Amino acid sequence: MDFLSLPTEIIHYILKQCTVADLFAVSQTCRALRDIIQDEFLWLSKWHELCSTFGLTLPAPQLPQESTARCCRRLWACYIRGGSPPPTCPRCHQRTCPLDCLETFERRVTLDIGSKTSWLINTTFALERHPSVVVTPGVVSSRKVLPCLLCRHRRQLLGYQTASHVDPKDYLFVQRSVHSGNWCYNSSQQHILGDCSVVSIDSGVESKEFPLWSEVYGVLRSIEPGCRILSPLECFRGGEREAQDLGGFVGHLLEQHRMLEEVKKPGVSLVLCEPFGTSPKARQALVRILFEEHQVSRLCLVNKAYATALLIGLDTCLVVDSGLSNTVVTLVVNGAAGKAQHCPVGGLAVSKHLADSMKINGEHRYVSLSSLDSSSVKASCRLAYNITHEERCKVAAKRDIFVRYKSTKGSPILEKHSLGPELYLAPELMYASLGLPDMIKSLLEGLHPGVVRDLLGHVLLTGANTELNGFASRLVRDLQAILPEYKYSVNINTYAGGRSWDVVMGATRVPLPCTQSPLMFSRGVSHLPGSFIWLSRDDYILQGPALLNSAL
């Protein structure tokens, strides 16, 4: 007898015995079954069945744009897709802790993805870092991220063999070695491809040869034809395709630092710092990946500039974030991030100009952007307070810099180079291309003079490029020249610590909806437009993408 010829009651009874995954698979077979499976009563019964199975007290879906079928699929993905459901809280005995339990026992994992280095603070407040670079195969059907050489290098340092009875993944989370660069690795060939840094590409564009990867791109293509080199930071500005790569990178970070199982616990929150210009499609796809594939219990998306203001405790300030490949200026007014402006110029421009100068002088044997983009080399550079004074010097003083290169034999090479005017000309060319004073002036136009004084009186510098010698004093001088009516108000706040990880440090201070923020005077706020938004697993199951309609 044909299955479709059975009475509707019997068909519904048979379908009730199927899992959610089976129901969605059956609905793809023919139009008649799809029409039968769309019955709201069928999915409502599956909803109550799933809630009783996991001991959930979720109300029935009531939003008109969210059908019960979609809510059941999200509930199944958040609780069953990983093989085992998320654990329950030992205190409140629920799979998603209420706010009163979080207020006392909450722990969090904070993640900031930068243009060169990604920083992670785990639940024990340990600061970890990882290179911000992703190498993915060119074949769309194979979406896995290639193995990371940094993790393999840690495994070799500790002397563990893959055939040992001890799982080497449990011992990968030690302090990084003296190798400070970023690595790419392919397990099929086991070739070290170079001491490389992040490469930024336009979202949705296939990979091509970039200056920073010029030494190794040919090797990459020979090992993995059609591979794509991505910057995770640029994936925030892409679509669903880039969000898949970004979600894989976030999962890789959590797994390598043993936080993937932690974020599934109901009392642990994942705080992710969002850069300027994050596209709505990438945000929605990333939230779906984090909740459904990584099964996080609670997620917070926080603006990077707002996190920097939280670190200092300022409710009105001007944040300048300059990293490896981009610079963002953001206005934070009354505890909320407002207007912002972006420029694709950063510290990599200094390395490019230094490399060009060394090649002109004939010192191009081992010169590469990755070897020049290091803190030891940048410490010898300076941004002149007055470039005219530097040009008046007839003979610029030579200074020795030591550059570490990666040899093809594996052992590093340390060579000495003598540079003169290049040490201040390279930062000057970068600063001229950046046009930072003009960016700040355009953002301040149209604001009340009192607000402008408050903003210029609290300028915060973050990002490794702002650590360049003379950067702060030069910026103060140029702002006083371009805004003479506010020349006595310009002040750059100084504080202890490095500017590369202060965003992730500030993100640890994002308030819970049940607590009071240093920048807010009310409790119970789960969403501050342009600054942060809190999302729980249960809210995502019930509302889905509609939860982000008023997000950052």
Question: In words, what does this structure look like?
Answer:
The chain is α+β, with helices and mostly antiparallel strands and 552 residues long. Among the domains are: 3-82, Monooxygenase (Up-down Bundle); 107-173 and 209-311 and 502-551, Nucleotidyltransferase, domain 5, CATH 3.30.420.40; 347-428. It has 22 helices and 15 strands. It is elongated and about 95 Å long. Residues 139-144, 158-211 and 516-524 have low confidence and may be disordered.
Give a quick account of the main beta sheet: strands, pairing sense, barrel closure. 7 strands, mixed
Shape summary: elongated
Portion in beta strands:
15-25%
Residues in helix, %: 25-40%
Average pLDDT metric: 76
CATH topology (level 3) name of the domain at 107-173 and 209-311 and 502-551: Nucleotidyltransferase, domain 5
Structural class: alpha+beta
For this structure, what is the CATH class of the domain at 107-173 and 209-311 and 502-551? Alpha Beta
Question: Which oligomerization state do the chains in this entry correspond to?
Answer: single chain
How many helical elements?
22
Q: Kindly report the name of the CATH homologous superfamily of the domain at 107-173 and 209-311 and 502-551.
A: ATPase, nucleotide binding domain
**What is the topology, as strand order, of the major beta sheet?**
3-2-1-6-7-15-14
Q: What Rg is obtained from the alpha carbons, in whole angstroms?
A: 26 Å
Residue windows where pLDDT falls under 50 for at least 5 positions? 139-144, 158-211, 516-524
Distance linking N and C termini: 55 Å
CATH architecture group name of the domain at 107-173 and 209-311 and 502-551: 2-Layer Sandwich
β-strand number: 15
